[in-house]
Amino acid sequence: MKVEVVVLGIGGVGAFALRALAQQGVKPLGIEQFVPGHDLGSSHGGTRVYRHAYFEHPDYVPLLLHSSAAFGELQEVSDRPLMVRCGTLLLGRKDSKELSGARQAADEHRLLVRALNSGELRARYPQFDLPNDYIGLLEPGGGFVRPEAAIEAAVSDARRLGAELRTRTTVQSIREDKSGVHLTTNQGEIHCERLVVCAGAWSQKLIPQLQSMLQVTRQIQAWITPRNSEVIQPERLPTWFLARDNEPALYGIPADPLAKGTPAAKLAVHGRSEKADPETLARTVSPGERQEFQALTKRWMPRLAATVSELKVCMYTMTRDGNFLVDRAPGMERTWFAAGLSGHGFKLTPALGQVLSDLALDGASDLPAGFLGLRDM
Length: 377
Description:
The protein is α+β, with helices and mostly antiparallel strands. It has 2 domains: about 1-45 and about 150-210 and about 320-370, 3-Layer(bba) Sandwich (FAD/NAD(P)-binding domain), CATH 3.50.50; about 85-140 and about 215-320, D-Amino Acid Oxidase, subunit A, domain 2 (D-Amino Acid Oxidase, Chain A, domain 2, 2-Layer Sandwich), CATH 3.30.9.10. The protein has 8 helices and 19 strands. The protein has helices at about 10-25, 60-80, 95-110, 120-125, 145-160, 205, 285-300, 350-360, and strands at about 1-10, 30, 50, 85, 90-95, 115, 135-140, 145, 165, 170-175, 180-185, 190-195, 215-225, 240-245, 245-255, 265-270, 305-320, 325-330, 335-340. A hairpin with a 2-residue loop joins strand 10 and strand 11. The longest helix is centred in the first third of the chain and has 18 residues, at about 60-80. It is globular.
């Protein structure tokens, strides 16, 4: 089988790359080892934060604004509820790198944010028990997006525009020569003129040149059920990010009004350090891990009297500096990739998918993603 462009990995970025290519009149082939919207990688969990006053790096802001607009456009085209604008609240000490970085990004890109002192935080968000010197930075334009629904909508629209999709297809090797890129799969050989790899935690296995640049870790998402479910609704609780001294940050998302069952808010540690391999990942959560999240809930949100009702394992794939890699694969001419996206990647998937489509077709993109190219790490 020979096609013009193959997108390998139809998670968040891959789904939007497939759609972007189809919008350009290409008939791309998407290859997914599971099915779009699966829960075995890093693009699942029911809800994901989106925000724009970005403490990680102000250069992300144009990509974030593009992505949020693209989520909204896809929501209209697909007639599916993909986004909830409930605001995003950063919590921490005034001099923390997170709040300082977010203020810098907001100033540089003229984003609307509001500073909240400790008294205002206590009055407005009594769900939290914060140190007296903690302040807040509220971005009203933030909120959450539904990842599985967004992926399914992007893939559906891509297929409407002519894209093809092969699921439960595993790529065993990639070989490139002057005639194109050759993929050996469990379903036979596939040949393409250009390849886009969006493989998440499997990136190093498919592009071994990335081995030293990426690290996969095992992460846990928890859902907490409070005594009073009204206080975790989006009208009362924004998405939030809490910077802690010398400990990984915490983040949370209010209950999704469309979720089935008892309303539950999400809680997670941003960046657990347990190394992992996607092929041997321990997907069962231990009693000790459940106790850890119960203790975190009691420490930071004691007034909720919440119980940890569900836990689910996922993965982060990170670079050493925490910034993504989006570039041509080292030593290859026809293969482009995005990797190291975990921790803060899903909110940027439409922009990164567009960048990869542009690179595969034209070798350059109008979106300002050059700062994410290969670099010494």
